[in-house]
Amino acid sequence: MQFLEIARNKMLSLLALLPYLHVTMFRENRTIRMYMFADAYDAIEENLFYNVYFKTEELSDADTVVDLGAHVGAFTLYALLNCKYGSRIISIEPNPYAFKILINNAILFRRIRSDIELYPLNVAVWSSRSLVPLKLTSWSENVHVTRPSSEGKSAKKTIHVCALTMFDILKICKGKNVVLKIDIEGAEYEIFKNSTWLEDERISHIAVEIHGNIEPIVKVLKNSGFQVYERLIRYTSSAAKLWLIFRPLWYSIMMYFYRHMVANTIKEPQIRILYASRKA
């Protein structure tokens, strides 16, 4: 067990040396290309292997899909593959380094479906329009917005980014059916402080990855007329073989063994997703 943990940590340190990868995946009789950070494997698994946020029919009915915490665009890609003709996808990512990759992916994604309107935005979402601190960490998926007074022990450095509110985001959503995916590393508590934006009846479905106490957000959503349930998603070694659809081959093999090592060194690695659907 100790040997596996050492090997896993060594693998992560090697991946951290790579600025980004240009990967190819073979999915649903399609060859799909995208750019990603080498440490963005969790985002790939969540959105392209397990589809943890929404069922395909929920996306296929949406006029606008909002990807809060888009990172390099894994969920944006999943939405693009499943939403209806002429839909709009708004991809919001405050990390300027991840946003550069997201922009390049948007160019590649438009070659897959030119009918979809892609709106990448390099902003954070907060309870008010402001400049907010963004903690840059060694793991790209853990970069997060925080309160000005808080200090992150694992942060390499802090930059300040522009933040909009949910009211601002909803103004650029089109149509009568809006779906929201939220994975913003703890900042979800801030945007649910002012819940009046939930009165927008176009919002049909919300999925939030929870990073802490779930009860405050459950209460807000229920009081705003949503049906709510929680899902706990556990990662197992079954994900390992799914990496074999990726190229370059060396990366897919590395991820194959990495997922096996995680399954044997971490007790039930998991994420919590809170789902909300507007009551009819």
What would your notes on this structure say?
The protein has 280 residues and is an alpha/beta fold. The protein is 32% helix and 30% strand. It contains nine helices and 14 strands. It has a seven-stranded mixed beta sheet with strand order 5-4-3-10-11-14-12, with helices on both faces. Helix 1 packs antiparallel against helix 9 and helix 2 (41-49) runs parallel beside helix 4 (74-82). The radius of gyration is 18 Å and the shape is globular. The model has no long low-confidence stretch (mean pLDDT 88).
Number of DSSP E strands: 14
The radius of gyration computed from the alpha-carbon positions, rounded to a whole number of angstroms, is 18 Å
Lateral arrangement of strands in the main beta sheet = 5-4-3-10-11-14-12
Judged by helices, strands and strand pairing, the structural class is alpha/beta
What is the count of DSSP helices, taking H or I runs of 4+ residues?
A: 9
| Average pLDDT rating | 88
Shape: globular
Low-pLDDT runs of 5+ residues are none
Helix percent band: 25-40%
Separation, N- and C-terminal Cα atoms: 51 Å
* Main beta-sheet annotation: 7 strands, mixed
Beta strand %: 25-35%
Briefly summarize what is shown.
The chain has 280 residues and is an alpha/beta fold.
Topology:
Blueprint: H1 2-15, E1 21-27, E2 30-36, H2 41-49, H3 56-60, E3 64-68, H4 74-82, E4 88-92, H5 96-112, E5 117-121, E6 124-125, E7 130-137, E8 144-145, E9 155-164, H6 166-171, E10 178-182, H7 188-191, E11 203-209, H8 215-223, E12 226-234, E13 246-247, H9 249-265, E14 270-278
Parallel strand pairs: 3-4, 3-10, 4-5, 6-9, 10-11
Antiparallel strand pairs: 1-2, 1-13, 7-8, 7-9, 11-14, 12-14
